[in-house]
Amino acid sequence: MVNQRADVVVAGAGIIGASCAYRLAERGLSVAVLEASSTFASGSTGKSAAGVRVQFSEPLNVMLSWQSIQEYQEMPAAGYRPIGYLFLVPLDQWEAHYQSAVMQKELGVPVEVLGLEAARRIISFSPHGLAGATFGPADGVVDPHGITQEYIRRARARGAEFHFDAPLIQASRSGGLWRVDTPLGKFEAGFIVNAAGAWAGQLALRAGLSVPVRPSRRMVFSTAPLKTLHTYPLTIDLSTGFYLRSEGERLLLGMSNPNEKEGFVEGIDWSWMETCLEAGLSRFPWLSETALDAKASWWGYYEVTPDHNPILGLMPGTQGFVNACGFSGHGVQQAAMVGKLIAEEIVDGRAHTLDIDPFRYQRFEREPSAKERNIV
Ligand SMILES: Cc1cc2nc3c(=O)[nH]c(=O)nc-3n(C[C@H](O)[C@H](O)[C@H](O)COP(=O)(O)OP(=O)(O)OC[C@H]3O[C@@H](n4cnc5c(N)ncnc54)[C@H](O)[C@@H]3O)c2cc1C
User: Fold this and answer.
1) Could you tell me the pTM of the whole model?
2) What confidence tens digit (pLDDT) does each residue in 146-194 have?
3) What sign for the dihedral angle of Cα 11, 13, 16, 21?
4) How many CA atoms lie within 13 A of 355 on its CB side?
5) What are 345-354's pLDDT values in tens digits?
6) Residue nearest to atom 12 of ligand 1 (CA)
7) Measuring from atom 22 of ligand 1, which residue has the nearest CA?
8) 2-46+144-213+306-365, what's its fold?
9) How far is the CA of 15 from the centre of ligand 1 (A)?
10) pLDDT bucket at 374, cuts 50 / 70 / 90
11) What pLDDT sits at residue 20?
């Protein structure tokens, strides 16, 4: 039975845990990563739609994504493809969406406001009810597995140890250390990083803490290969939340179900596919010429917080428990920067490259916290 001491135990070997482990090891700390399953990226990271974008309504989300995108641009393993994100915006959401685009431009990120005719030159759609569009030319897609694997490689090269089939079962703090039970034995560490994705609420409970992250299932549907080849950007109809994008010769499609029950519900809800397709066909009538490939479709969990923003940094009311969770469906695109900030929080006592105060746990103590609107 292992009885190991490390500066930091990172719980979870998805893209967030891997990025944190790399940046902590880079700063000279000893790191033990505990992963419940038998391999890396087997949670939400391996199920995501892999999109990266700067188009958020909360400035900190814009910066977390933009600085991460810039890191992915320089990382061959990230497989960054700038296919763009196109938001189609209905009349009743236009003013708020436009103001977000103004804020994004002020932050210096690439975003363009388009009229409907210009947007229709990118993708054919029916314009009913729409006021305008925005396009992020540096937005696109990445390879979440490739990024996670690369961070694990870099972390290991700096001495971090990864333990699989090693769930954190229970953790308690005494004598200035966290004492962690796993099926592999006990670990001791000054810090625990909660990078357990949709399981982050559950993980916190195992340490006697309450962190408001809940799982909510999402589906991604795939078409069969299309007859004509064309690369479609990730295009979102904000009037319904329906989105599509190209993946090779296929299209990926999806739409969040507002009535989806929270919890670890499994499998694809095929009745939701019908609703999703109806919404898609009303905006993109040409979809009627595509065929769905049920076997290439999949599902996974969003890790949802009350305001759809992540929870970052030291947990108040205890010592050495650091949250890096609750990304509410946009963690892949923020992982690079989150790893850096969490390492700063632990090594320097406070994250400083970006001010993470808006996303600290403490925001829930001063309700209402600002809600991220651009959640897909
Ligand atoms: C359908 C879908 C589409 C998405 N699309 C996008 C997108 O386009 N762009 C984007 O940025 N994001 C997207 N996301 C969200 C993104 O996948 C997540 O935000 C991101 O993967 C979170 O990474 P993570 O490492 O925190 O979580 P995960 O990858 O889930 O990793 C958490 C890990 O913790 C492990 N774990 C759980 N309990 C314990 C325990 N007790 N002890 C140790 N380990 C434990 C789990 O096994 C898991 O491997 C999407 C998600 C889904 C489901």
Assistant:
1) 0.97
2) 999 999 999 999 999 999 999 999 999 999 999 999 999 999 999 999 9
3) positive
4) 4
5) 999 999 999 9
6) 330
7) 331
8) FAD/NAD(P)-binding domain (3.50.50)
9) 7
10) confident
11) 98
| Number of Cβ within a 10 Å radius of residue 174 | 8
The CA 112 to ligand 1 mean position distance, Å, reads 30
How far, rounded to the nearest angstrom, does the alpha carbon of residue 14 sit from its chain's CA centroid?
Answer: 10
Burial class (CB in 10 A: 0-12, 13-18, 19+), 289: exposed
Look at ligand 1, atom 33, and give the residue with the nearest C-alpha.
12
- The bridge status of strand 214-222 relative to strand 298-304 is antiparallel
Residues contacting residue 54 through CB under 8 Å, at least 6 positions apart: 62, 65, 66, 69, 104, 109, 110, 111, 136, 138, 139
Rounded CA gap, 350 and 344, in Å?
6
SS3 at position 217: strand
Name all residues whose Cβ lies below 6 A of ligand 1.
11-17, 34-37, 42-45, 47-51, 167-168, 195-199, 203, 218, 220, 300-303, 325, 327, 329-333
Domain 81-139+215-300, classified CATH 3.20.20.70, yes or no: no
Token couple for 107: 């932050």
Alpha helices in 232-366 (DSSP H): 270-283, 335-347
DSSP, residue by residue, 62-77: HHHHHHHHHHHHT-GG
How many CA atoms, within 13 angstroms, populate the side-chain half-sphere of residue 37? Answer: 13
| Domain boundaries, given as residue ranges, for the chain | 2-46+144-213+306-365, 81-139+215-300
306: CA distance to ligand 1 center in Å? 17
Buried/exposed code over 12-31 (b: 16+ C-beta within 10 A; e: otherwise): bbbbbbbbbbbbbbbbebbb
Mutation pick for ligand 1 pocket among 48, 72, 145, 221 (CB with most ligand atoms within 8 Å): 48
